Predict the 3D structure of the following.
Amino acid sequence: MPKLSRLVVAAALTVALPLTAMAAPAQAHGMSHSPAKPRIVVTQDGEVDDMDSFIRFLYYANEFDIAGIVYSSSRFHWAGNGADVAPYRWTGTEWVDHYIDLYAKLYPNLRQHADGYPTPAKLRSFYKIGNVSNVSEMTQVTEGSEWIKKVILDDKPGPLYVQAWGGLNTTARALKSIQDQFSGTGAWPSIQRKINKKVVIYNILNQDATLADYIRPNWPGIRIIDNQSQFWSFAYLWTRQVPAAYQSTLKAPYMETNFLNGHGALLEQYRTYRDGKPTRGDDENNRWRPDQNLTYDVHDFISEGDSPAYMYLFDFNGLRSSENPTYGGWGGRFAPNASGWIDTSDVNTFTGAADRAFPQTRWVADLQNDFAARADWGVTPRYRDANHNPLASVREGVDLSVKAGRPVTLHGRGSDPDGDQLAYRWWQYTDAGTYGKAVDLAVRGSAVSLTVPADAQSGQTIHLIFEVTDDGTPALKHYQRVIITVR
C-alpha cells in the first residue's frame, strides 16, 4: 500500500474551533473561517497613508463584503468643532468621494479581470462621517457611529472585522450607544454574547485613547488583532525595517513603472516621497517636498501603514491567514494575548535574528507585484492583455494528520489562466508552526517529501508553503499552506 494512503486528512485543531469558543481569546488561538467573503467595516482618519491604503483597497474591493467606510479622527488628524477645538492637520472628507469617482472610471475594466467588484454607487452608500471633531471624541452620536451600531446589531453572522486605520473613537461611540440602549435590560446578556462572538477589531497602532479607556474595560470579550509594530515595515520608516534585498519594489523605478505612470487617474493620486504634491490641510507633513527627506528618491514608496488591516483577510492568495492570526500572511502574524492577539516576531532569514517586522516584510515583493497586476487591470479592457494569478493546489489536501516518525510526500500542482510558464517552491514556515524547528525537505519539482520528526508532540503543527509563480509581467504567485498536525 502506498505510504500516502496512511495520511488522514483532517482539519487542523485550531481551525475547527467554533467562533463561540473564542470568547476567551487568551485561551483559544483559532478563528472560525467561512468560505464567504470577509465582512468588513473600514474606519480611517484621512492621513496620507490612509489615502494610499484606500487606493489599494479599491483595487481589492472585490475580495470583501464591505459593510462600511467610516471617517474617524485620530491623534494625528481631527476636524475641529468650529468653536473651542481648532482643526489639526485636517484633510477634509471629500477625498473619499473623489477617489470613488476615479474608481468608477476603472470599474468597467476591473470587472473584465475578476468578479465581485462593487459598483461605485454601492461604495458611496457605505461612506459615512463619524466622530471627527477631536482626538478620542466619542460623546457625539454621529452618522458613522450609528452606521457601525446598525451593522454590529444586524442579523448577519460574524465575524465582522472592524478595521482601525485611525482612532477607534467612532467604533467606541457605536458600542457606547449599544450599551446605553440595552444595559440593564433583559436583552443585554444576549447582546453582549452576540457582539463578543461577532466583532473582531484589527487595530493599527493606538491612534487615540478610546481602546484603552472605553472598549477594553467595557467590552473585554471583543477580540482584538493588535498591530503595534509590524505595520512600520509598510509605512514611513520602511527603509529601517525592510531588508535591502526586498526594497526594490518600494523604490522609485518600480513605483513609477507599475503605479504612477500610465495607470489611470486614481493612481495619479497615489502619494510618494518628495513627489511635489502637498495634501490639502496637511502641509506640515513635508514628506511631499522635493527639498526634504533626501534619503529617499523622488517617488519612493511613502506609506501604506493601514493596508495590513485588510491584507490580513486576503484568502484569495491561499495563505489562509484569516483562519488564525498565528498563521501569518500579507497582513502580519500574531501571538495570543489577554484580549486577542498582538504582533510577534519571525526569524529574519537574512540576519538569523528574531525580527518583529519580518512577518510583514517577508511578503513585500509578492504583495507589491500583486498590486501591480491589479493596477494593470484598471487600464486594460481585455482579459488576455493583462496578467492574472496562477492557481496552486496540493493533491493530498491542505490539512493533514500524521503520526510522529512517519514519512509524508505531497504533490503540488499549478495552472495558469494566461498559459504562463510556472515555477514551484516548497518551504517551511517554521515560525507559524507550533513544532518550531526546521524539518528536512526533499523537493523534486512540484513534490516534497519529509518525515515528521520523532520528537514532535501530539497536537503540534508543521506549516509548509507551496508557491506557484508565473513568468508573466509582473510575476504573480499563488500559495497553498499545508498544515500537518502531529497525532
The first strand starts at residue 8 and ends at 9. The domain at 1-16+390-487 is CATH 2.60.40.10 (Immunoglobulin-like). DSSP finds 14 helices and 19 strands in the chain.
